[in-house]
Design a protein that fits this description.
This protein folds into 2 domains: 222 residues, no CATH class; 152 residues, Jelly Rolls (Sandwich), CATH 2.60.120. It is 10% helix and 38% strand. The longest helix has 14 residues.
Length: 400
């Protein structure tokens, strides 16, 4: 993914693991909202950007948490190479066992030689079993190719969270190849445009999943047997491969108390929360998802208000100064309401991205319930495509 040009370099330099820890500590006073910042937050619409002058820092105290692997599908990500330079080639090929599969396609038409040309990037499935395969789509998110990577990343995750596919069941004979997403077969991908697909499906026979680039007039399943070029992996960008981890459950170890001040939850940073690992191809070579993109973090945080304050949940682009690829940040989250209802929210909701401090995104405001000593905050977070990581989740006590 485009922001992982930076991540790869930082990992090689050994800087990512220390970036949040080696900055000079600020005083406790710096963590308090000024009267003007409090006024700003109270006047900001949920989902929008608030300017919090001289407040945001990577040094907010961290929330301690347990992170447990949760049941989930086999997970495939295709982002190595991100930019496909070969006009016709396979860029990912993995075999999955019968069961649930999550597939995240994040590839760009990068053909420049002999000249820039229109391409098709598509995903196909081959039945590797001896019996007919039943393919059932569960979640479907497919965006029109675009050079607006931030928009695609936000919208793609929103569609995935909201998706609940019914009656998309297909039969695949032994050895037969089908298109996983027929919309990808119809798209024409211009140079530098991103193809973004995010799916969950179930198969009941062993299957081979392939991502390929070809000419727009070709039909992926038909041309697939003729493509002999499989681009080697390079361990760049987020990576590619097959992973056994797709979901985490995150539980804060301590109950947040508003009187104890600002706290931040740091996940998907590669340090406190390491990247998931898996394998690439039939040789089972080492794979790493540098960003945990496509992984779902089902999070629960207990809190109480002993001083009558509420909590504002905010985030900000803490990596904006690192590199031009980190100049913007946008994400999408699924949040649980007090009555158990779910809301999916693009963040920010009023503009495409947040740029840098003093900008912060107001994700949600939690009000104290006088009838409950302990309340619970629940949300699902997934590292946002096209953004640098981590995206701190900061809990700020606020007078309501």
């Amino acid at each position: 993914m485009r922001r992982t040009h930076l991540l790869s370099g930082l990992l090689m330099a050994g800087l990512l693991c220390t970036g949040l820890q080696n900055l000079k500590a600020q005083t406790t006073k710096a963590y308090q909202l000024s009267s003007s910042n409090l006024k700003t937050l109270k006047e900001t619409k949920v989902g929008s950007i608030a300017r919090l002058d001289s407040f945001l820092t990577v040094d907010f105290p961290k929330i301690r948490y347990d992170k447990v692997v949760a049941p989930g599908p086999q997970f495939i990500i295709s982002d190595d190479p991100e930019y496909i330079r070969v006009p016709e080639a396979i860029v990912l090929q993995e075999e999955v066992n019968p069961g649930a599969v999550r597939l995240y396609v994040y590839n760009v038409n990068g053909v420049k030689e002999p000249q820039q040309m229109k391409r098709k990037i598509t995903a196909v499935l081959k039945n590797m079993g001896a019996e007919p395969l039943t393919f059932r789509m569960l979640k479907y998110s497919s965006q029109k190719p675009s050079t607006n990577y931030f928009q695609i990343g936000k919208k793609g995750l929103e569609d995935f969270f909201k998706s609940n596919v019914e009656n998309d069941v297909r039969k695949v004979n032994p050895g037969e190849v089908i298109a996983i997403d027929e919309l990808l077969e119809k798209n024409v991908v211009e140079y530098d445009q991103l193809v973004h697909g995010f799916y969950e499906f179930v198969v009941d026979q062993p299957a081979q999943i392939s991502i390929l680039q070809t000419a727009p007039e070709n039909y992926g399943p038909d041309v697939f047997p003729t493509i002999k070029t499989l681009i080697p992996h390079s361990h760049e960008n987020a990576g590619r491969g097959l992973f056994g981890v797709s979901n985490y459950t995150v539980q804060a170890l301590d109950t947040l108390d508003t009187r104890h001040g600002v706290k931040q939850l740091i996940i998907a940073d590669g340090n406190d929360d390491p990247w998931i690992t898996g394998t690439i191809g039939p040789k089972k070579e080492f794979a790493q998802n540098a960003g945990n993109y496509g992984v779902m973090y089902k999070t629960k945080i207990r809190w109480k208000s002993t001083d009558g304050k509420g909590l504002a949940l905010i985030t900000w682009n803490s990596r904006s100064a690192d590199n031009k690829w980190c100049g913007g940040m946008g994400l999408t989250m699924e949040l649980k309401g007090s009555q158990g209802q779910s809301v999916v929210r693009q963040l920010p909701s009023d503009v495409l991205v947040t740029r840098a401090a003093p900008e912060a995104i107001l994700i949600e405001v939690y009000k104290p319930d006088p009838t409950k000593e302990i309340q619970e905050i629940e949300f699902i977070y997934s590292p946002p495509g096209a953004s640098c990581l981590p995206t701190p989740l900061v809990f700020v006590p606020i007078d309501l």
